């Protein structure tokens, strides 16, 4: 936690808003998506879904395949506790909605379904998109699959399995958006990134959660930024955005969002 506080202070000094952005592509993304103040009807569905989870006292036996939680240590956990401490926040879920509504991705891959808060937001933002979401914990996957069914979100393929194994089966696909939100270990995250590079197109966006979760995750972020195929990155502190637009020169942005 101390590491994150120090990094956030540094972020505040380095970051800017749309007025510090000279790339038309990034300027449009920031002004029309990040800072979009429209009150979309779907926001109420996102909020209600999250509220229902916070009130849910079902117990799930959680199998952490990644770095695990910094807050929750017990294997058997209340859904309400997971939603409060590990679930996507309402603010970030709304941004996920705006992202898919803005980019209109046809194929989305999510690494780390958890309780489906992010999955639902991605789906509502781009109802025509096909979403593949991978969850490593069998009980969580089973629980969330039923939740999404109850929400009538039917174009999500929820896969239960180890990320390493399942990604190998998916590298022949092409993805317009990949949300990396399931393993906060350095080598694993870099392996996923390298494996899934071949699935990206010129307009794809890779979204990395918790880039300041630990020193190792920040090192991952710095390594990804320098990759020769990466042209544009945006650091919003809680997320890192990666783009592969060949028509743009390499540039890195730090944006308050």
What is the highest CATH level, the class?
Answer: Alpha Beta
CATH topology: Rossmann fold
The largest sheet, given as strand count, sense and whether it forms a barrel, is: 8 strands, mixed
One letter per element, helices H and strands E, the order comes to HHHEEHHEHEHEHEHEHEEE
What proportion of the residues form beta strands (DSSP E)? 15-25%
**Care to count the β-strands?**
10
The rounded distance between the terminal residues' Cα atoms is 21 Å
Protein structure class: alpha/beta
Number of helices: 10
CATH architecture descriptor text? 3-Layer(aba) Sandwich
- State the fourth-level CATH superfamily: Vaccinia Virus protein VP39
> Whole-number radius of gyration?
17 Å
Numbering strands along the chain, what is their spatial order in the largest sheet?
5-4-3-6-7-9-8-10
What does this structure look like?
This protein is of the alpha/beta class. It has a single domain (2-55, 88-254), classed as Vaccinia Virus protein VP39 (Rossmann fold, 3-Layer(aba) Sandwich), CATH 3.40.50.150. Helix content is 42%, strand content 20%. The strands form 2 sheets. An 8-stranded mixed beta sheet has the order 5-4-3-6-7-9-8-10, with helices on both faces. The protein has a two-stranded antiparallel ribbon with strand order 1-2. β8 (232-235) and β9 (239-243) form a beta hairpin. The longest helix is centred in the middle third of the chain and has 14 residues, at 90-103. The protein starts with a helix and ends with a strand. 37% of the residues are buried. Mean pLDDT is 93; it is low at 67-73.
């Amino acid at each position: 936690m101390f590491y994150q506080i120090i990094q956030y202070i540094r972020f505040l000094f380095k970051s800017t808003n749309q007025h510090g952005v000279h790339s038309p592509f990034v300027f449009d993304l920031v002004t029309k998506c990040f800072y979009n103040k429209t009150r979309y009807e779907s926001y109420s569905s996102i909020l209600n879904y999250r509220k229902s989870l916070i009130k849910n006292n079902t117990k799930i036996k959680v199998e952490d395949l990644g770095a695990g939680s910094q807050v929750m240590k017990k294997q058997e956990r209340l859904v309400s506790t997971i939603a409060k401490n590990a679930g996507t926040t309402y603010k970030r879920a709304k941004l996920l909605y705006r992202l898919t509504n803005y980019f209109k991705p046809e194929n989305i891959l999510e690494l780390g379904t958890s309780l489906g808060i992010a999955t639902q937001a991605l789906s509502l933002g781009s109802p025509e998109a096909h979403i593949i979401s991978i969850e490593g914990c069998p009980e969580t996957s089973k629980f969330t699959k039923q939740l999404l069914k109850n929400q009538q979100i039917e174009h999500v393929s929820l896969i239960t399995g180890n990320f390493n194994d399942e990604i190998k089966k998916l590298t022949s696909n092409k993805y317009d958006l990949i949300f990396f939100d399931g393993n906060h270990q350095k080598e694993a995250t870099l392996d996923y990134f390298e494996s899934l590079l071949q699935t990206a197109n010129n307009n794809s966006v890779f979204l990395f959660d918790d880039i300041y979760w630990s020193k190792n995750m920040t090192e991952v972020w710095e390594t990804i930024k320098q990759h020769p195929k990466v042209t544009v990155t945006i650091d919003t502190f809680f997320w890192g955005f990666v783009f592969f637009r060949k028509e743009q020169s390499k540039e890195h942005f730090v944006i308050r969002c």
